[in-house]
Design brief:
Largest sheet of chain A: 6 strands, antiparallel
Largest interface: A-B, 70 and 78 residues
Distance between the termini of chain B: 50 Å
Oligomer: heterodimer
Order of helices and strands of chain B: HEHHEHEHHHHEHHEEEEEEH
CATH architecture of the largest domain in chain B: 3-Layer(aba) Sandwich
Shape of chain A: flat
Structural class of chain B: alpha/beta
Helix content of chain B: 25-40%
């Protein structure tokens, strides 16, 4: 199949340039139906009097594609204008389509679909981590990616600048610092955090409350802490005198129990750094009332970071009294729930040997003796240092460049060590210049190559960066060396293996960040008055739901219609409570079968999506409608004309968003797009900005007090928001189908199953190859859809089809 | 452990004295007069228009809520309305283009272009230790400074680090190590140039373009290193001020803004840089301001709710208060017979005219200092905005970076 297309392609190129017949075929149509509005006086971006016909010009090409699409879909001329003569239209479009495809294929054959593609920050980090066996955050040294690109790996949207170059040198330096560890051997024994007796933590037990004390306490066998928000510093590991000696993996073990806890509480662990000013919830373990639980967590830390335990999901006192209202007793008089830590230990870095294996591997063949007088390990060459360097570069360069490397190339990097090679320079310093150059070089940073079919190594690399965001592993490299990878069966087997490998989570996370904009999850913080229940746990559960959902579709090869509606989702106790779904035990996310009438199931009603399509206070049907059209269906609406200003929301309560949007129905130029945008947005009005189901809006203005008890308890018995106007989630689709809410709307959307699959395939192609679906690629997308139609577009099969497509197999 | 911030500021920030020392040798010492500088300050969540713009235009406009905060400087600034970059949108994405004016942020085919500060810095070159300085009030390192190829230059968000880079000289062995490092960096970059030359010979056309971009980037980086190397040997200016203590608490928005603004007089007076851009971005969490109990970004989407607007005004008044302190500091410090402000074109504004609806038109724009004739409110057409770049062109010309065009400019908006 692919071969046939390639041959067809080659034939096309062989054809003589045949002028631009579409020009003649288009002219009558333009004259009859377009020119009235789109002439030199137009307010729109399209002016036919100025538009050229040279399809080798990128901007002109793009414009004609847009014209083709809008006329083909019947969006232009607008509904109210006279319909064009079908024969005229058909003739024009046929000619235009053929010429667009020819021009596109010609360009692809000459240059490849994708120009040289730079490693993204994420790929750079994973690749260096995997080659050197390190774990540090290297992304933070690199400039941010282009914010206007959906996926950071799309070549056409990438830039490179002197800022990048300096950043690469810095990042590689940091990576080498971590790879070459020659300091004294860290202590092996676990360190106990004795909160009950430690000088720092115990200082707070009796200190007067006005000086910040008495917010924590000790019992006979435990240390008890309450709301983490107020006092995290008390249990901070650095304040307890513990500092991470080396970057690496550390194991934290502890035992905790609820204190005065009548409900499930959480034993939380946070990681933080003053240097970078970030705090991250790294562990969350549920503890049943009346029980104690041993927990264990392995986590990467580096010097300068610290961790602290914290109680999660703690209810305040039933009498509504806070700790600070307890005058002299403080925590001891407080009646609310707390976390009692019986003991907590930390051990690490978890290295099998010292200097660590990664250092020994990097410096293969070099001896690393301990110099007691300097308290440091040192490197002693066992042969000519240059030969050592040659060995090192020879071992690493094929990994870095993801292909066999010539001796000349190796030599060019080795020779770099020389100018900075005074006689007494040790190996571990000498090796840096060659490696810094190697990991900042274009061979490392770019996926480049000749147009045409990818060779085995380029294919291995494309596959590996698609599914693992890193260099090919030993098996892929072996298959590439044996020139077997291009065999369809071998390729399929590899995709199977790679999808089942946990490294494919890198793909899932990064792909969803771009496709569904999950990277925007923290773009706004929900208003704490209106949405006091939003916290780190909920945030993490939201993200996990969407990620596990895609993983499940992939693992079980489920049909693409599940993106629209599914009878299952992934929940833990926290998220289930948020959704108002039964009792799901524990902090772990699990697959849950949904009741038949549940509004949940499918992407649209997942809290993560509902959050990224709202700001912290308000929901906008326009934004959510746009998300459905753009991200779910892949049919983004045209942007509003430049002379139209955005609607200014009004939340004073007198006007609903619906009334504000009424304008959209009444003004023709708005209606043409908003008849598509607004309905899905209306259906999703049943969900608040953090994805909770609502029948009334929450407000800080006039309204009724809520009765939810958990909320009441959170705020000294006084909830902070009220219930305002009723939500109206009804509407009718552009096709005139009426719906009263999300359930019916979602069922109506199931007819768009094919379009959802088409969009998913297009997103995959874009992400996998680093180039958006171009005009000539559309046939290939349609072919993939046609083959998978009867089975309902099973997601894993779609993956295979993309990998076996012409688009994936060619540059 | 915690220093009282107010005391600290009195000791260091605004009130600090900067004696001219022989060793300072500002780059302009050889020239006749101190050079012009430019400072861009962007409050990315807008400034509530009804509280800013007066009804009357010209010189005798009435003081509004915000203008009354800086009324002491009324003769030193000009307020503009009706300015913006054409073709903006993409909600908050127009933050990226406030200094570059690249059209259609967030849409297909969008490509950012060089920002006005980098344009000026490129022309001025390494006459100062830092061709440009980009600062940000939050930890994301996002700046509004973009290179020629539309790549963002990460902003410094820790004032202490900027201070150290400008004024603290390392120990001799540290300097030696730095030099050794720079030399190694340069030879690594040389090697990269060689490698790229080889690749360029065989690369297909589409790849060649990208590789050429890489090659040019390496070459520029190499030149920059050479300049930086030269600057290492020149002594850093001595200041009496102590290094600022960074504020890690992200909710202390105003404290963080103030620390950034406090750096400007130091940078200007020591001629460490002549081009400064500062971006004020909301931080997650509630700003610690009396009477504010919601997030800055949420409040900017006030939805015309008077209670929310009142809170938003509190935040923005505090920001205007910082600007007032800043102008005072710039006028208190003198150089060669004038004030620092006389030589410093300072633009305060926002990429959003109405943050509640993400309207990128009708930006609030206030230009202070630079020795221009100020004291007026100039209202341009609110329906048909004048390109903000017209004002950029004027600023560039004032900087002696002579040009008759920048990005979307259609002329020069002279004062």
């Amino acid at each position: 199949m692919n071969r046939i297309i390639v041959i067809a392609l080659l034939l096309l190129i062989g054809l003589p340039a045949h002028g631009q017949p579409f020009k003649e075929a288009m002219e009558p149509l333009v004259e009859a139906s377009c020119i009235d509005c789109h002439d030199a006086d137009t307010d729109t971006p399209l002016n036919f009097e100025k538009l050229g016909h040279d399809l080798s010009d990128a901007a002109t090409f793009r414009q004609w594609v847009k014209i083709f699409d809008r006329v083909d879909k019947g969006e232009m001329p607008p509904k109210k204008k006279k319909r064009p003569d079908p024969v005229l239209k058909n003739k024009a479009l046929t000619a235009l389509e053929a010429d667009l495809r020819t021009a596109n294929l010609k360009q692809q054959a000459a240059q490849g679909r994708v120009a040289a593609r730079r490693l993204t920050r994420l790929e750079f980090e994973y690749t260096l981590q995997d080659i050197l066996g390190i774990g540090g955050n290297l992304k933070r040294h690199l400039p941010p990616e282009n914010a206007s690109a959906k996926f950071a790996n799309v070549a056409a949207k990438q830039g490179i600048s002197p800022v990048h170059i300096r950043s690469y040198l810095k990042a590689v330096d940091a990576a080498l610092d971590e790879a070459i560890m020659l300091g004294p051997k860290p202590r092996v024994a676990a360190r106990v955090m004795d909160y009950r007796n430690n000088r720092y933590s115990s200082m707070w037990f009796d200190r007067p409350m006005r000086n910040g004390g008495q917010t924590v306490m000790r019992t006979d066998d435990a240390y008890v802490m309450f709301s983490y928000r107020s006092e995290p510093h008390v249990a901070q590991s650095n304040n307890m005198g513990y500092h991470f000696p080396y970057p690496g993996l550390y194991r934290i073990t502890a035992e905790g129990a609820g204190y005065q806890a009548k409900t499930h509480i959480g034993f939380g662990l946070y990681k933080a750094s003053d240097k970078h000013g970030n705090t991250e919830l790294i562990g969350n373990f549920e503890i049943k009332p009346g029980e104690s639980r041993k927990i264990e967590l392995t986590q990467y830390f580096e010097p300068g970071e610290f961790f602290f335990p914290a109680g999660l999901n703690l209810n305040t006192a039933p009498d509504g009294k806070m700790i600070y209202m307890m005058r002299d007793k403080g925590a001891r008089g407080y009646k609310g729930e707390g976390l009692a830590i019986k003991w907590l230990k930390i051990e690490g870095p978890l290295e099998e040997e010292w200097p660590p294996t990664r250092t020994r591997n990097l410096l293969t063949g070099v001896q690393v003796p301990w110099l007691p007088q300097h308290r440091i390990y040192w490197t002693h060459p066992t042969k000519d240092p240059k030969e050592h360097l040659h060995d090192i570069v020879k071992r690493l360069a094929p990994k870095a460049f993801r292909r066999p490397v010539t001796d000349a190339e190796i030599e060019s990097f080795v020779s770099l060590a020389k100018p900075h090679h005074p006689k007494d320079q040790p190996m571990h310093k000498m090796v840096r210049a060659p490696l810094r150059a190697m990991f900042s070089s274009p061979q490392f940073l770019f996926h480049a190559g000749q147009p045409g079919p990818l060779d085995d190594h380029a294919l291995a690399s494309r596959l590996s960066y698609f599914l693992w965001k890193t260099l090919p592993d030993a098996e892929l490299t072996r298959l590439a060396n044996e020139k077997k990878l291009t065999q369809p069966k071998v390729l399929t087997a590899q995709v199977e293996r790679m999808l089942d490998d946990p490294r494919s989570n890198r793909f899932i996370n990064d792909f969803l960040d771009g496709w569904l904009h999950l990277s925007d999850i923290d773009a706004t913080t929900p208003d704490p008055t209106l949405y006091p229940e939003y916290d780190n746990e909920l945030r993490q559960a939201m993200l996990a739901e969407t990620r596990l959902f895609l993983r499940e579709l992939l693992a079980k090869n489920l049909p693409a219609r599940n993106f629209i509606k599914s009878n299952f989702t992934f929940l833990n106790r926290r998220l289930a409570r948020h959704y108002g779904i039964g009792k799901i035990p524990g902090e772990e996310m699990r697959r849950v079968k949904l009741p038949a009438n549940s509004p949940r199931g499918g992407l649209m009603t997942q809290a993560s999506i509902l959050k990224v399509t709202a700001n912290g206070t308000l929901t906008s049907p326009v934004k959510r409608g746009h998300w459905v059209l753009n991200s779910l269906l892949g049919t983004p609406p045209q942007p509003p004309p430049p002379t139209i200003s955005a609607l200014e929301p009004d939340i004073r309560g007198a006007v609903t968003i619906r009334e504000t949007l009424a304008k959209h129905r009444d003004v023709a130029s708005c209606a043409s797009c908003h008849q598509h945008i607004d309905p899905p947005g209306f259906a999703l009005e049943s969900f608040d900005p953090i994805g909770g189901f609502r029948q009334r809006y929450r407000t800080t203005g006039k309204g009724d007090w809520p009765i939810e008890r958990h909320l009441a308890a959170h705020h000294m018995g006084r909830p902070l928001y009220r219930w305002g106007l009723d939500v109206d989630a009804s509407g009718s689709t552009a096709g005139g189908e009426k719906f009263r809410g999300i359930r019916r709307f979602r069922d109506l959307l199931l007819t768009q199953e094919e379009q959802v699959a088409r969009n998913f395939v297009s997103q995959l192609i874009t992400y996998a190859t680093g180039a958006e679906v171009q005009f000539a690629d559309r046939i290939e997308v349609e072919r993939i859809l046609a083959v998978n139609k009867t089975k309902g577009y099973p997601v894993r099969d779609l993956f295979h089809a993309v990998v076996q497509s012409r688009l994936f197999l060619n540059k | 452990m915690k220093l009282n911030r107010r005391t600290f500021l009195q000791n260091t920030g605004v009130a600090m004295a900067l004696p001219w020392l022989e060793s300072m040798q500002p780059a302009w010492a050889k020239e006749q007069a101190p050079p012009k500088r430019m400072v861009f300050i962007c409050n990315t969540l807008g400034l509530h228009a009804p509280a800013l713009f007066p009804k009357k235009t010209g010189a005798d406009y009435e003081l509004t809520d915000y203008l009354s905060i800086i009324k002491a400087h009324q003769k030193d600034f000009t307020l503009f309305s009706g300015l913006s970059h054409p073709g903006q949108g993409g909600e908050h994405l127009c933050e990226m283009t406030w200094l570059s004016a690249a059209p259609n942020p967030g849409m297909d085919g969008f490509q950012n272009s060089i920002s006005v500060d980098q344009y000026a810095a490129g022309k001025l070159g390494y006459v100062t230790r830092f061709p440009s300085v980009s600062l940000s009030s939050n930890n994301t390192k996002k700046s509004q400074s973009y290179t020629n190829s539309g790549v963002m230059i990460p902003a410094e968000y820790r004032p202490s680090r900027m201070f150290a880079k400008m004024f603290l000289s390392g120990k001799p062995e540290e300097i030696a190590r730095q030099k050794q490092k720079l030399a190694e960096d340069r030879s690594v970059l040389d090697e990269l140039l060689d490698q790229t030359r080889v690749l360029l010979k065989t690369a297909p056309a589409a790849d060649r373009e990208r590789l050429q971009e890489y090659f040019d980037s390496v070459r520029t980086a190499e030149n920059d290193l050479a300049e930086a190397q030269a600057w290492i040997d020149r002594p850093k200016p001595q200041v009496e001020a102590q290094a600022p203590l960074d504020i890690f608490d992200q909710t202390d928005l105003i404290g963080r803004i103030r620390l950034l603004l406090n750096l400007v007089p130091l940078i200007v007076q020591t001629d460490s840089s002549r081009v400064i851009s500062i971006v004020i971005q909301h931080n997650h969490g509630m700003p610690q301001i009396e009477g504010v109990d919601s997030e800055h970004h949420n409040l900017s989407h006030h939805g015309r709710d008077p209670k929310r607007i009142e809170q938003l005004l509190k935040i923005e008044r505090a920001i205007m208060g910082c600007f007032d302190e800043f102008l005072t500091a710039m006028k208190t410090k003198r150089e060669a017979g004038g004030t620092l402000l006389d030589q410093t074109l300072t633009l305060l504004g926002s990429n959003l005219g109405n943050a509640s609806s993400h309207d990128p038109r009708n930006n609030p724009i206030l230009l202070a200092g630079g020795g221009l004739k100020h004291g007026r409110y100039l209202a341009h057409d609110a329906k048909n905005n004048t390109p903000l770049c017209n004002l950029f062109v004027h600023m560039l010309n004032q900087m002696n970076v002579n040009t008759d065009k920048f990005a979307s400019s259609t002329g020069e908006l002279t004062l």
